[in-house]
Amino acid sequence: MNSYRGRFAPSPTGPLHFGSLVAAVGSYLDARANGGEWLLRIEDLDRSRSRREAADTILRTLEAFAFEWDGEVVMQSRRLDHYHAALTRLQLDGEAYPCACSRREIAACAPAPAVDGGLVYPGSCRAGLAAGRVPRAWRMRVPDREIAFDDRVQGPVQQNLARAVGDFILLRADGQYAYQLAVVVDDAAQGVNAVVRGVDLLDSTARQIWLQQCLALPTPTYAHLPVVTNAAGEKLSKQTRAAAVDAAGGSAVLAAALHFLGHPVPPEVRSGPLHDFWRWAIAAWSMAQVPVQRGVFPG
Predict the structure, then answer these.
(1) Range of the domain at 292
(2) Alpha-carbon span 263 to 258, nearest angstrom
(3) Same domain, yes or no: 96 and 115
(4) How far apart are CA 64 and CA 25, in angstroms?
(5) Is 197 known to sit in a ligand binding site?
(6) Is the domain of 30 the same as that of 48?
(7) Cα–Cα distance for residue pair 55/277, rounded to 1 Å
(8) What's the structural domain count of the chain?
(9) Does the pLDDT at position 235 exceed 90?
(10) What is the mean pLDDT of the chain?
């Protein structure tokens, strides 16, 4: 791949856990194996959950594991003007519209569960606000047709946005820009052309591709890695009390992450210095070896 630009974009809601480390290792190795750049972005839009100390801890942990990123670390919380500009363009183009619906109102008439665990928006405000209603949020109009892409791990993917999620949120009722809008704006601004991330975000990809098309932005390639689960089948996260990774474990911890991604690591590399691990891992990396499963409990 020419001029490869990848990225790792953790949310600073807690320390780096093993599941996040797997995503970092996969994205880093794919970038370096393709002779490309690896950028680092802190996705701290969610003011209620993001913590500055967590962001600092994540950066220190990555440094301790000898990850080397290119350029400055981008903080989403400092880029609100860019999201506002994108939303304004969508509003002027008629692609975004105001919505007055509360969660209770949506739940009362939603046609089906959404693919992301929420509810398919019924389109109540699509034709305009009813008399006396005050806008609470802004939504993106979606087409009633398939959006398709070829995922480098999961294979061909198709999703009908109208049936899978409905018109989705761009600006929330609390004034916070939605992840879908921010990630599209940021990837384009940073020139990211190869996204490697967890498969838990696979169902968001069609929404992001639709936004890219409406904003006349390039669409990167996508590779969705299997996510690490606990014994109950839940994705590791702060909510499931995932333990922080210990960088003191060095190459052995990184080797466990790489083994999870279908690359067994020789004992001498697993027990060697970090420099030797990364040199071996970059040479050995192949996306074709990554398991296609969505969630895996490491045995």
Answers:
(1) 5-77+227-296
(2) 5
(3) yes
(4) 13
(5) yes
(6) yes
(7) 25
(8) 2
(9) no
(10) 93
Q: Is the pLDDT of residue 250 over 90?
A: yes
Annotated binding residue 7: yes
Q: Reduce the secondary structure of the chain to three states and give it as a string.
A: CCCCEEEECCCCCCCCEHHHHHHHHHHHHHHHHCCCEEEEEECCCCCCCCCHHHHHHHHHHHHHCCCCCCCCCEEHHHCHHHHHHHHHHHHHCCCEEEECCCHHHHHHHCCCECCCCCECCCCCCCCCCCCCCCCCEEEECCCCCEEEEEECCCEEEEEEHHHHCCCEEEECCCCCECHHHHHHHHHHHCCCCEEEEEHHHHHHHHHHHHHHHHCCCCCCEEEEECEEECCCCCECCCCCCCCECCHHHCHHHHHHHHHHCCCCCCHHHHCCCHHHHHHHHHHHCCHHHCCCCCEECCC
What φ, ψ does residue 86 adopt, rounded to 5°?
-65, -40
CA separation for the pair 265, 280 (Å, rounded):
9
Consult the annotation and say whether 101 binds a ligand.
yes
CATH of the domain at 119: 3.90.800.10
Q: Is 179 annotated as a binding residue?
A: yes
Q: Is 113 annotated as a binding residue?
A: no
pLDDT digits 0-9 by tens, 16-75: 999 999 999 999 999 999 999 999 999 999 888 888 899 999 999 999 999 999 999 999
For residue 68, say whether it is annotated as part of any ligand binding site.
no
Please indicate if the annotation marks 238 as binding a ligand. Answer: yes
Residue 177 lies in a domain: no
Q: Report pLDDT for 5.
A: 98
9 is an annotated ligand-binding site residue? yes
